[in-house]
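User: I'm curious whether this sequence folds into something compact or stays loose and floppy. Could you predict its structure so I can see for myself?
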Amino acid sequence: MKNIIILVLISFLFNACSYVQQYRINSNFEFEKIPLVEQKEISVYIQENEFDEFDEFSDVELHSSDPLKSYNKFMTNVNDSIYMNLLNPVSTKYANIINEDVRISISNFFYNLQFPIRFINNILQFKLKNASEELGSFITNSTIGMLGLFDIASNTFKLKKHNEDFGQTLGFYGVGNGLHIVLPLFGPSNLRDTIGLFADSYLSPLNNTGHLKYKIPNNAEKSLGIFAINSLNKNSLRIGQYQSLKKDAIDLYPFLKDVYEQSRKKQIKD
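Assistant: Here's the prediction. I'll summarize afterward.
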């Protein structure tokens, strides 16, 4: 149990520093997140959106009052230090051991299992065509794609991915960001999206939150183990992306805050 908890903590930090990949942010976010979150998403997004404090895309909302600024800056530096000095080397070693094609298949498998989150949130936003494509992709990849190990839906049938989460759904209905929060280990978020994370956990088959029959783990220990494996594998496919993202940052916290808030605004608008 102790070893599992340590692995989970490491995996959390992987998510913290690759948060941009957890959310679709490019013209295709969708990251993704992812099946394999597209590995060039961050670079594409940065090329298409120059982050300047005077950029016309920035608005009053993004630069509004930040009551948790001191805490957020501290937690950003903590997450960054742990990632750069511990988690990035671990991710690199994992990638050197496990063949990339295998890691992509594992990522596809986990992505396919999280279909309920995407399907329900597309429906809640009345994106019925997108929901139907998500359903078609899930059926195709679960059968022809061997339980989701292979993304036949996208690669062969050209079905698009429509990543939607409950934070985006709340934004669709006009719920504002709320105060910005840098979550320990998870990284940048805001009040709305933090609530969304909890809501999506009830739909995800990969944890034991809630009482839905399709849940895979039946206790917290198994949930943490699955999360650790998924996170470690997913982030091994993103090596170097975080470093590329932050290399132009003069002050890391406000830079990452703006990247996060702008990317979420774009996802909600789309």
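Summary: Residues 2-269 form one domain. Residues 1-14, 16-63 have pLDDT under 50 and may be disordered.
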